[in-house]
Amino acid sequence: MDASRGGGAGRARSAVRNAALLCAAAGLAAGAAPASARAPAAPDPVVVVDCSSQAQVRPEEYVLACGDGNNQLIRLRWDTWGPQTATATGTDMVNDCRPYCAAGRFHPYPVRVTLGNPQRWPDHPDLRRFTTIRLLYPEAAPAPVAKDVTYKLVY
């Protein structure tokens, strides 16, 4: 048997065993530390509530027109999601409802989204939810909407 191979395998097993023992010791030490010495638990993130009253964090899609689904944000890419605001870019898909909504066509509008004004969620007092959504259209906005509009989120 080649001594270099046998010794190498033994050293590798020993290194793995030592690493496992160190990890176990670190875990025991962390558990034995007084509560005041431990890192505080991360606060729950602020959420946005969807049409089904479900809490969402960084959703890829968000329906603005809950009653009929004729306005929804899609392909949302979140740049930030913080305790006070969240910002994203995406596409606002809006039904023109011509001649009526069932026969209408959806049109895409590039949009910048900002969620804000976090408040305690009455249904889940341990969570905060964003209560405003600002839509900023860098190009055309869907008529008759302004290029910069803020709505209250009521869910």
How would you describe this protein?
- The structure is a single chain.
- This protein is α+β, with helices and mostly antiparallel strands and 155 residues long.
- Helices cover 19% and strands 39% of the residues.
- It has 1 helix and 8 strands; from the N terminus they run αββββββββ.
- The protein has one helix at 3-32; strands spanning 48-49, 55-56, 62-63, 71-81, 86-95, 106-121, 124-136, 148-152.
- The strands form 2 sheets. A 6-stranded antiparallel β-sheet has the order 3-4-5-6-7-8, with no helix packed on it.
- The longest helix is centred in the N-terminal third of the chain and has 30 residues, at 3-32.
- The chain is globular.
- The model is unreliable at 1-6 and 8-37 (pLDDT under 50).
**Radius of gyration, Cα only, in angstroms?**
26 Å
Largest sheet: 6 strands, antiparallel
Shape: globular
Determine the fraction of residues in helical runs and give it as a percent range: 10-25%
**Number of helices in the DSSP assignment:** 1
- Low-confidence stretches are 1-6, 8-37
- Strand order in the largest sheet: 3-4-5-6-7-8
* Number of beta strands: 8
In N-to-C order, the SSE pattern is HEEEEEEEE
- Class inferred from helices and paired strands: alpha+beta
Our measurement of the CA-to-CA distance between the termini, rounded to an integer number of angstroms, reads: 72 Å
Mean of residue pLDDT values: 81
Tell me what portion of residues adopts beta-strand conformation: 35-45%
